[in-house]
Amino acid sequence: MDRPVIGILSSLKSGDPDLSRANKAVSVPYAYVLSVLDAGGLPLVLPPADGDAAVAGMVGKIDGLLVTGGNDLVPQLYGEEPGWGQGSFSPERDHLDLVSIREAYARGKPVFGICRGIQSVNVCFGGTLYQDIRRVETCTVNHWQNAESSRPSHTVGVGRDSVLYPVLGESALTNSFHHQAVKRVADGFRVGAAAKDGIVEAIEKENGPFVLGVQWHPEQMAAAGDPAMRRLFALFVEACGG
Ligand SMILES: [Mn+2]
């Protein structure tokens, strides 16, 4: 079979916050592209697009969807007002994430969410987020490491019934660059992995098409050659038909 086409969601970026939207760049960290290629997929970067039909049309061209990292979701999407500690927003990216996840799922195409991506998956299916885990008393692990992004910092425990278990075993060291996290897990999902302080680090759909989200950045570790994180991308690309 042909190599599956993996749609990689991108963000609009600019070093100058006052720059008009039309002058921003479509941006995606290259480690996502490298990790998809290494796992046998063909990467196709998908830009934010105005209107549901354009996003749905793009999803029609891919075999699987990779929801990448980025800034915070607008909290009204999960029924909250912005709290102290909330970060920057991107309505274009929110639209791209939520419509593409919904469309991919409706067409039975696998979805893999990373960092912001796990948060978008959870919100898309009706879950909620902690807006700033530094303000959560029980959150005692540092989830924004100082070490470089290819190096792991904290432990995650993996559930025995998780799709991650054959890939990572019962625990793994991961990197961590997030100040938000899943609060209420969306109906129909289970927690696949959690940090020692209870912060949710992975969720997955219990039944039906492959939908997986992880809170860490496996692409940064995979691009540096980490065998377990390379296997994680292989798991996703295989689910897409690779
Ligand atoms: Mn973490």
What Rg, in angstroms, do the CA atoms define? 17 Å
Counted up, domains total 1
CATH topology: Rossmann fold
Q: Can you count the beta strands?
A: 13
Bound molecules: manganese (II) ion
Beta strand %: 15-25%
CATH architectural label: 3-Layer(aba) Sandwich
Number of helices: 7
User: What is the N-to-C succession of helices and strands?
Assistant: EEEHEHEHEHEEHEEEEEHH
Oligomeric status: single chain
The low-confidence runs, each spanning 5 or more residues with pLDDT under 50, are none
Provide mean pLDDT, rounded: 96
The helix fraction, in percent, is 25-40%
The gross shape turns out to be globular
Name of the top-level CATH class: Alpha Beta
In the sheet with the most strands, the strands line up as 4-1-5-6-13-12-11-8-9
* Most strands sheet: 9 strands, mixed
CATH superfamily: Class I glutamine amidotransferase (GATase) domain
Structural class, from helix and strand content? alpha/beta
Task: Describe this protein's structure.
Helix 2 (52-59) crosses helix 3 and helix 3 (91-106) packs across helix 4 (116-124). This protein has a single domain, classed as Rossmann fold (3-Layer(aba) Sandwich). It is globular. The strands form three sheets. A nine-stranded mixed β-sheet has the order 4-1-5-6-13-12-11-8-9, sandwiched between helices. A two-stranded antiparallel ribbon has the order 2-3. Helix 3 (91-106) links the parallel strand 5 and strand 6 (111-114). It is of the alpha/beta class and 242 residues long. It has helices spanning 30-38, 52-59, 91-106, 116-124, 165-168, 218-223, 227-239, and strands at residues 5-9, 11-13, 25-27, 42-46, 64-67, 111-114, 129-130, 154-158, 171-174, 181-182, 189-195, 200-205, 211-214. The longest helix is centred in the middle third of the chain and has 16 residues, at 91-106. The chain has seven helices and 13 strands. Bound molecules: manganese (II) ion. Residues 143, 154, 176, 178, 195, 199, 201, 215-216 line the site of manganese (II) ion.
